[in-house]
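hey m, so remember when u said the tokens were messed up on ur end? i reran from scratch. heres the input so u can diff it against urs
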Amino acid sequence: MSESYIDPYKYQHSYADELADLVTPIKPTVIYQPHLQVVNHALWEALGLPIQWQDNDTFMQQLFGSESLLTQHSVAQKYGGHQFGHWNPQLGDGRGLLLCEIVDNQGQRQDLHLKGAGPTPYSRHADGRAVLRSTIREYLASEALFHLGIPTSRALCLISSNEPVYREQQEKAAMLIRTAPSHLRFGHFEYFYHDREPGVAADIATPKLQQLMDYTLAHHFPQCVDCQNPHLAMLTQIIADTARLIAHWQVVGFNHGVMNTDNMSIHGITFDYGPYAFFDDFEPHYVCNKSDHQGRYRFSQQPSIGLWNLNALAQAFRPFVTTEDITDALDTFEPILVEHYHHLMLKRFGLTETTDTALAMMTLFMKLLQSPKRDYHISFRQLAGHLDWDSLTLLRNEYVDIGLFDEWLAAFKAEVALQKVDFTTLQSRISLANPHTVLRNHHAQAVIEAAEQGDFSLFHAYLEILKNPFDATTKIDRFAVPPSIGDKGIALSCSS
């Protein structure tokens, strides 16, 4: 078979075909002077996409051509969501389109979803475009989290353009194709649960909700189909995956910023990047979204908001699952999150056993980071690379509260001895568990400013560093520099 052969059966459209009543067919709107600016070659290869499509003109024909494999069945999805705690049924893909589903080289189904596709029936009079600034931020963040081992959607490619768009100021439009197991959000289920005729009981499934549930079970939770109650099994799995995801966020200091239910994936992946941030100094109550005036989505609140969102999702399961079973399923969220958080956090200290004394030691260290606030990522990284305990002791000069440091170090030594870990093994574990580089907002801003002037060299340099977060040998000096006092704790808008 010729290497240029393209298998049309690889590009599937199960969502568009099986849930035709829940979508709006629509083609992407051509963007002015589009250019295939960045390609995620590793992901492209894993998806088995044709190499020849990486030619700019060929790809644009696939994206905007009337009979292309990518867009011949592209659709905008309808959903609702709780935004800052308030129900909003007037949502949907306002600037995005589900292009198709593709079976990757491992036999797993992945959505190809285009952001910045132009207006849809759900755009609410907006232009349906994404800006270069936010597109770069999503590309960097999704790849940064992926290479940290945190579940996330991923960026396949970035398309730049010279089309002007207007937000707080004139900017350049851009497009992003991202991948995910699906783009089903909590808000999909909420919308089709609440979209019922007056007088219809809450424990009765509407036909569209039934369709959505059947589809989701068949395509995304087939392991639940033969369970005694498939819907309960699916809900339980979503709860567990969401708990583990948020535990990951809390360990690495990642603040999502907009945990509306329409930004929550049923797959337990990081989804819909907006004004996110990895905090710099350890600030439990950090708010990265300057539109979040009440701090609803502050860092410390993410676990409780995750549970709140799951409660909102669980309402849609009422026609299929008893109230008692829903309550029991939701009660598993906290213990799963806490267990996963403790496991991941203790790994940062080179420890594998979750003992009471280990947790007490961990608590002392977190207290140490707060008095006064210290750079979270540098503080953990400083634990790596020491030859012996005497060398590690020298870190006490970095801290204001020497007494608290000595108390922590004594507890740390005792726990290492209790778990029978030799110092060489300890240091190796710490080095492998603490990233040398995380995505910093001040570096991302520098990348954006260069790209807006047509220079993507800084983008590619930073991306390579983020793809190897535990490797100190790939360090570029400018990306190792922590933020100045003025650059710390930056809050961004939802358009970011």
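this time it looks ok to me. The CA atoms of residues 142 and 280 lie 19 Å apart. if urs says something different then somethings off w ur setup not the seq
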